[in-house]
């Protein structure tokens, strides 16, 4: 009977000693560090995808950065030659000057200073005299190409609309939702004196070859 009682007391004692020995060993080895780190990792774990930039996102960021870089580092001065207008149908290559005063129009095609530069988003407006640089402009119509070469690159536009408007019509220079080239000259072409109307070509940008 006493032996049974002693063995019952001995079992808890052995278990206590075992736990103490195990605890001392566990605390003195890397097992404790490993377990602690594992528990911290599991309780604080997040979805790695939330902190990893997806390839598509990187590409979009790069595209956005490229879009934010301006085509032209500097804006031109009045009277400055900013490029050339090529009209394939007429086999013509005409110089473009910044401004639409007589000083610019006497030398070539004038770029309306209040409009964006060629290749930029919005409405680029060019003008020229009907009896000099644009004397054959009436032969250019829907579907024809207009190419502008500047320091920023080569920009190809395709005529989508031909308009004949009053000379006071200001809708010619209104902003556009996309890159557009508007070319204006006096009309009728054979009119003697100050022409009462304007011949307008409206073209969409279809290709860019940026420098």
Automatic annotation (TrEMBL):
One Pfam short name: Sortase
ATP-binding recorded as keyword: no
Keyword presence, NADP: no
CDD domains noted in UniProt: Sortase_D_1
Annotated keywords: Hydrolase
InterPro entries found in the cross-reference section: Sortase, Sortase_D, Sortase_D_1, Sortase_dom-sf
NCBIfam families the record matches: class_D_sortase (NF033746), sortase_fam (TIGR01076)
Protein name: Class D sortase
Native organism taxonomy: Bacteria, Bacillati, Bacillota, Bacilli, Bacillales
